[in-house]
Amino acid sequence: MITLTHYLTLTGILFSLGIVGVLRRKNLLMLFFSTEILLNAVNIGFAAVSKYYGDLSGQIFSFFIIAIAASEVAVGLGLLVLWYKRSGTIDLDSLQMMKG
Amino acid sequence: MEKYLYVALFAPVVGSLFSLLFTAKKKNVITALVTSALLLLSFVSSLTLMFAVHDGLTLHVKLMDWISAGNLNIPFGFMVDNVSVIMMVTVTLVSSVVNIYSMGYMMHDKGYNRFFTYISAFVFAMLVLVMSDNFVGLFIGWEGVGLCSYLLIGFWYEKDTASWAGNEAFIMNRVADLGMLMGLFLIYWQFGTFDYETIFAHAGSMNVSVVATIGLLLFIGAMGKSAQFPFHTWLADAMEGPTPVSALIHAATMVTAGVYLVIRASDLFSLIPEVGHIIATLGAFVAVFAASMALVHRDLKKIIAYSTLSQLGYMFVAAGLGAYWIALFHLMTHAFFKSLLFLGAGNIMHAMDDELDIKKMGGLFKVMPYTAILMAVASFALCGVYPFAGFFSKDKILEAAFNGSNFYIWFALFIGAGMTAFYSFRLIMLVFFGDKVYKKLGFHPHETYPFVLWSLLPLGILSTIAGFFEKPFEAFVTRVLSKYEFSLSHSTEVELIFLTSAFVILVIVATIYKYYKGGFSKQIETMPLYILLKNQYYIPKLYEVAIFKPYYVLSRFAWKQIDVRIIDFSVDLIAKVFYKSGQESRKMQSGNLSDMLRWMIVGTVVLLALAIFYRPMM
Amino acid sequence: MFEIIAFYTFSILVIGMFGIVVFSENVLYAMSALAGGMILISGFYFLLGADFLGVVQIIVYTGAVMALYAFGMMFFDSARDIKENIKFKKIIYTLSILSAIFVIFILMAPIYSTRVEALYPTIHGVGNVQMIGLILFTKYLIPFEVAAIMLLAAMIAGIVLVKVKIEETPSNIEVARGEK
Amino acid sequence: MIETALIIETVVKAVVVLSVVAAMGAFATFIERKVLAFMQRRLGPMHVGPYGLLQLAADGIKLFTKEDIIPQNTIKPIFIIAPVVAAASAFVAVAAVPYFPEFTVFGYTVHPIISDINVGLLFVMGAASVGMYGPLLAGLSSANKWSLIGGARAVIQLLSFEVVSGLSILGPVMMMGTLSLIDMNDYQIGGVSHWLIWKQPLAFVLFAIAGFAETNRTPFDLIEFEAEVVSGYATEYSGMRWGLFFIGEYANMITISVLVSIIFLGGYNDLWFIPGALAMLLKVSLWIFLFLWVRAAWPHIRPDQLMWFCWKVLMPLSLINVLITGIVLV
Hints:
Helix content of chain C: over 70%
Strand order of the largest sheet of chain B: 1-2
Number of strands of chain B: 2
Number of strands of chain C: 0
Shape of chain C: globular
Oligomer: heterotetramer
C-alpha cells in the first residue's frame, strides 16, 4: 500500500535533486529548469497530502503554484532573452555586477 | 491686570525671537528698534503693574501645569507682589535704557543683531526669575540668566580672554548652583513642594537646623550669582563682555539675583538669624575686600566691577541683618547709578578706542563734558553724598549695622565707604582731569551720539532723586517684607549720618586735592600692600595653583590613561570587529547568483535544523 | 498492486529524468528529460485521483512552459554542450543531502499528527473537476482572480521585455560581460 | 478477476485502435494523393495494383527498407526519439476518444474507448500539445538551419493555435457542463437539431480553423513548406523515422476530425436511418475530404499573417464567443 510517507519521501528526493540543480548549474536556462523541478516536487507533495487527508485545498495550492510557474517562465524567459541580447551569453558568471 | 503681566513677561521673548531670525544676517537696525520698543512696552506694563500693586493688588497666575510626575507637581506659575514688581520695574527700566544705549554703542559691531537677541533673552530669563511663584521657576530663570550671561561675556568669542571669561563665569556659577540645587532638593524633601507660600507658611514649624541648612545652601547659590567671596573672581573677568552688558547684567540686574533670593526667602532667613549673621559678616568682608582691590586698579571697568562687588556686599549685610527692605532699596538705587557709571565708562571706551587704562586718559572733561557730569553724578550717588540716591540707601545700611550692635560690621562698612569715595574720585580725577595723557598716545576722543546721552538721562535723574522715595518705598515693600525696627535714638542716628557723610566728603575732597596736585608718586607702586592689592590678594593665582593645575593634571591623566587607553580602545575594538567581519564577509557578496543561492540554501538548512531540533522551553 | 507498481515505476522514471536534468551536460537532454518528467508527474496526479490537476500539468507544464523554454533555447543556440565551471562540489552535495533529509523529516511530521481536519473534504460521487471548480470559485475566488491578474501581468511583462530594443554598443557588451 | 479482464480488454482495444488508426492514417495518404490528383485533373498513382491501390504497400515497404541515415553532429538520442514522440503522442491522444456506441460481443459489453477519464477533452488536447515535441526535438537535434527554423515555426504555430482551440472549445464546454467526450456525445442525442453546431457556430468555425493549423494542413503548412525551409524539422529524416512523423500527422488529422464530429456534429448518435457507427465514419470521412479539398483549393499564408490571424482575429473572436456564451447562459 502506498502511503503518504512514500509520496513525501519522493517529494523530498525530488526537491533535493532540484536543489542540487540550483546549486550546481551555471547556465541560467538550467537554473530555470531546476526551479521547475523544485516547484513540481512541492506540487506532488500537495496533491498527495490533499488525497490522504481528503482535503482539496492541496490541489488548489498546486494550481496556484502552476500559475506562478507559468508567470515565472514568461517574465524569466523575457529577462533571459534580454540578457542574451545584451551580453551574448546566458552563463551565470556573466552576471556579476553586484559584486560586494 | 493679567494681560499686563503677560505683556511684561513675554514682550522681551518676542523681541528676542524676532531678532533671532536676523542673527545670521547683516546688521539690521530694525532688530534694535523692535527689541527696544518691546522692552519699553515691558517696562510700561511693569510700571502699570506697580501702580496696581500699590493699590493693593497681588497677582497670581498659573499659566499651565509644567511638570507632573508622581507627587511632584510644578505649575508654571507667576506672582506679582510688592517685591517682584520692584525688581520688574528696575530690570525693565535698566534694560530699556541699556538697549537704547547699545544701539549707539554696538553701532559698528558684527554681532549687532545677535546682541539684541541675547539682551532680550536675558531680560526674559530675569523676569522669569523674579516673577516665578516657586523655587523651580526661579531656578529656571536663574539658569537662564546664567546662560545669557555666559553668551554675552563671551560675545566676542574670537577673543581668547572673552571666551575664557565666559567659561569662568559659567563654571563658577555651576559650582555655586550645585549648592542651590541641593538646597532645592532639601526643600522638596522637607516640604514636599516648591511653592513659596506653602514653604514660608510651614517653615516656622520645621526643625531649625534643617532650615539653617536650606538657608546656607541657598546662600551658596546666591554667592555664586552675586560673586561673593570666594566666587568673586569671575565678575572682574566678566568685564570682557561689551560694556552695556556689564552695565545691565554684571552691575544692575543679574548679580543682584542673589540678593533678591535672600530677600524673596526672607521668611526663611528671618527664622535663622545665625545664618543671617554669617551672611552679613561675609557681606561686610566683601565690601572692604573688593573696595580695597578697586583702590589700586588701573582698569576702568574693573574698578567699577570691584565697586559693584563691594556694593553687593553692602546689600548682603542689610539682607543678613534682616533689613530686607533696605537691601532691596539699595539694590534698586545701586542699579540706577552703577549702570549709569558703567554706561559712562562705555562712552569713555568708545571715545578712547576701547582703551581701558585710566592712567592713559586724563583731561577728558573738555572733550566729553556730558559724560563727565553724568559719571560724577553717579559717583556722588555711589559714595552716598547728600542728596544723591546712595546717601539714603547706603547710610541706612550703616545705620542698620550699628543698630544691631554689630560694630565691627559697621566699622568695616565705614572704612568701605571711605574707600569707595577714594576710588570713585580717583577714577573721576584720573579720567576727566589732570594731564591730557591721551594726546601723547595719539587718541582722538569725542563725545558720543546725542541720543545715547539722552538715553542716559533717566538714569542720571533717578540716581539723583531716587533717595527721596525712601519713605513711600519702605511703606510699599514692607507690606510683604518684614519691617525693620530701628532702636537707635534720633540723635545717635543724626550723629551717625553726620559722621559718615563727613568722612566720605572728607575723603572725596582729599582725593580731589591730592590728584589735582598730581597724584601719588611712583614709589607707592613698589609697596608690598600695593602689590598685594594689585594682584587681587593673589587669589586668582591661588585658584590656579590649588584648583586649576591639579584638575588639569587629573584631566590629562583621565584623557591619556582612561579615555584613550580604555574607553577609546574598547570603542575602537568594537568598530574594528565590525569592520573586519564586514571585510571578511564581503567575499560572500560575490555578486554571483550561484554563490547567493548557495548561501540561501545554507540558510534554509539552518532554519530547517532549527525547526526540527529547537524545542522552546515549555 | 497496480498502484504500487505504478508508483514505483513512475518514481524511478521521474527521479531518473530529473537526474538527467540536473547532471546532464547537454541542455537539449535536460530539456527533453524535464518535459518527460513533467508528463510522468501527471501520472502521479492520476494515481492520486486528481485528474484535473494531471491534465493541467500536461497542458501547462509540458504544453506551455517547456515549449517556451525550448523556444528560448532556439534563441540562445544552446543546444550544444556547454561548459560549466562548477566549484565546491562537496559543499553542494552536502547541502543538498542535508536539506533533503531535513525536508523529508519535516514533511513526515504531519503523519504523527491526528489533529488535522479537512477543511474542504472530498465528497464521494462528485467528480474531481466539479469539486475543484466549486472550491476554486467560492473559497479561493480572490486568490484565483489575483493569480489571473498575475498571469496577465507576467504575459505583458514578457512581451515588453523581449520587444525592448537594445543598442549594442561595444562598451555595453563589455560591461555586461564583466570585462570592465 | 475483473481487474484482469479490464486490463485484457484495454490492451485489446489499444491494439485495435492503434492498428486501425495507423491503417487509416496510411490510407489517408493514398486518398489524399488521389483526391488531389482528381482535383488537378490528373489520375494520381495508377501503376501499383488496381487504381494504384497497392501504392500504399509499396510506399510502406520502401520506407521500412530505406537506409536509416543519422547525420553527423546531430544529438543522436533526441534525434531518434523525436519521431517516436510525434507518433506516440498522436496515438495517446486517441486513448480518450470514443468512436462508436457501446456494443455487445459474446455477452460482453464493449466500450469503444480505451480510457474513459472524466476530463477526456482536456486529455486529448494535452496529448496533442505534447505532439509538438516531435517537431521541436527534431528541429533542435538535427544540426540543420532549416530544421531549426522549421521546429521554431512548429512550436510557435502549435502554441498559438492551442490557445485558440482551447478558448473556442470553452463555449461548448460551458454549455454542456462536462469535459467528458461521451457526455458531450450524449448531450446531442436528440438528432440533427440538437447538434451543437447550431448553438455554437462561431466556436465550430474557430475550432475547425485551429484544427487545420494544429495538424499543419494547408493553408497553414508553413512548417514543411519546401520553398522556404526545405522540409522543415523533417529535413534530415529519412526512412521509417520520417514515416513516423507522417503517420503521426495523419493520426492527428483523424483525431481532430473525430473531435469535431463528436463535439459539434452529433457524434456517434444515430442519424435518421443511419446507425451511429456509420454516421460517425461518414462524418470523419467528410472532414478528411474537407482537409484535402482545402489543400487543393487554397494557397498557404505567410508566417506573420499566420500569427496576426491567430492572435488578432481568432483569439479575440474566441474570447467574445466565451463571453457571449457566458451571458446567454446566465
